[in-house]
Specification:
TIGR04219 family outer membrane beta-barrel protein; 10-stranded antiparallel beta barrel; signal; 11 strands; mainly beta
C-alpha cells in the first residue's frame, strides 16, 4: 500500500504543479518574440510563467489559448504502443486444470511491441517496448520518439525522446490477467535540455470472459526534476502469439522552469493509438 500511495502522491504533485500557466514547448527555451506581452501587474519574482504561444498558419488562429497546449482530437498516422499483452493468458485460461489439482505456474512471458500515437494536427509518436513478466517479478524498457509541429508558427519540427526502464512486481497474476506496480528511472530528451528522474507506474490487463479480448490500462508518473504523467487505456485482441491493440493516450510534460530562461514550458497531448506486438 505504501508504494501505491507514493505513486498517487507523485501523480497529484505532477498535476498540481503543472496546472499553473505555462508556455509550450516542453524543454525548449523561449525565443525572442514568442512570449506574450508582459502585463502591467507582472512582478520581477525570478520565474515568469506565460501563456502558450498560439500555433497556426492563419491570423484567425491567433487568439490566446489555454496555458497548456492541448492537441486536437483528429485521427492521425498509424500508432503502435508499448502496453504488454498476455497473449498466452487466454490459451491457459481455456485449459482447465483437473479437479482438485493446482493450476500450473505460468512460465515467464516475453513481450515485444511497437506502437504509434496520433496527436491530431500537433504531431505523433512512435514507441517501442520490451518486457519480461515472471510470476511475480519482471522488468520492462520503453522508448518513445515524438515529432511535433513547432510552436513558433514555423515549418520546423520539434522532437522529444522519452526513455524509461522499470522493475515490476505483480501483486495479482493469474491465468486471467495481471496487475503490476513499477518503479525505475526515466529520462526526457528535449530540444534544449535532458531530464533524468525517478519513475513510478501501475498497469492492469484482464481478459474479457472467454473472448480473445483484453482490457488494458497504464499510468506512469515522473515527479521531478521534470513533470511527466502518461496515461492510456484500451482494448487488445490476441491472435495466437500476435496481439493487436488500440485505445487512447494522454501525455503531460512540464520542465518545471528548469531552463535558464526562467519560464515554465509545458505540453499536453492526447489522441488515439494502435499497436502491434508479440508475446511468447
Amino acid at each position: 500500500m505504501g508504494f501505491w500511495k507514493t505513486l498517487c502522491a507523485a501523480l497529484a504533485v505532477a498535476v498540481l504543479l503543472g496546472s499553473a500557466p505555462a508556455e509550450a514547448r516542453f524543454g525548449k527555451r523561449s525565443r525572442p518574440g514568442t512570449s506574450d506581452a508582459k502585463g502591467s501587474d507582472d512582478k520581477d519574482d525570478g520565474k515568469q510563467e506565460h501563456r502558450a504561444t498560439p500555433v497556426g498558419r492563419y491570423a484567425s488562429d491567433a487568439p490566446v489559448r489555454s496555458s497548456v497546449r492541448a492537441s486536437g482530437v483528429g485521427v492521425g498516422w498509424f500508432d503502435v504502443l508499448f502496453v504488454s499483452g498476455p497473449a498466452s493468458y487466454h490459451r491457459r485460461a481455456r485449459v482447465a486444470a483437473p479437479r482438485g489439482a493446482r493450476a500450473p505456474r505460468p512460465a515467464p512471458l516475453v513481450h515485444l511491441n511497437v506502437q504509434g500515437d496520433s496527436f491530431g494536427d500537433t504531431g505523433g509518436a512512435l514507441d517501442l517496448f520490451m518486457a519480461l513478466d515472471g510470476q511475480r517479478w519482471g522488468m520492462d524498457a520503453r522508448v518513445s520518439g515524438i515529432a511535433l509541429s513547432a510552436d513558433d508558427g514555423s515549418d520546423d519540427t520539434d522532437r522529444l525522446t522519452l526513455l524509461d526502464a522499470h522493475l515490476t512486481i505483480s501483486p495479482w497474476s493469474t491465468e486471467r490477467g495481471r496487475f503490476r506496480l513499477e518503479a525505475g528511472i526515466a529520462s526526457a530528451h528535449a530540444p534544449d535540455a535532458i531530464f533524468v528522474g525517478p519513475s513510478f507506474a501501475a498497469s492492469l490487463e484482464a481478459c474479457i470472459g472467454p473472448s480473445p479480448f483484453d482490457i488494458e490500462a497504464r499510468i506512469q508518473a515522473v515527479p521531478f526534476p521534470h513533470r511527466q504523467v502518461d496515461m492510456q487505456a484500451g482494448l487488445a485482441v490476441h491472435l495466437g502469439a500476435l496481439n493487436l491493440r488500440g485505445g487512447w493516450r494522454t501525455l503531460y510534460l512540464s520542465d518545471a522552469g528548469q531552463l535558464d530562461d526562467g519560464v515554465v514550458h509545458a505540453d499536453l497531448f492526447s489522441g488515439p493509438y494502435l499497436g502491434l506486438g508479440l508475446s511468447f
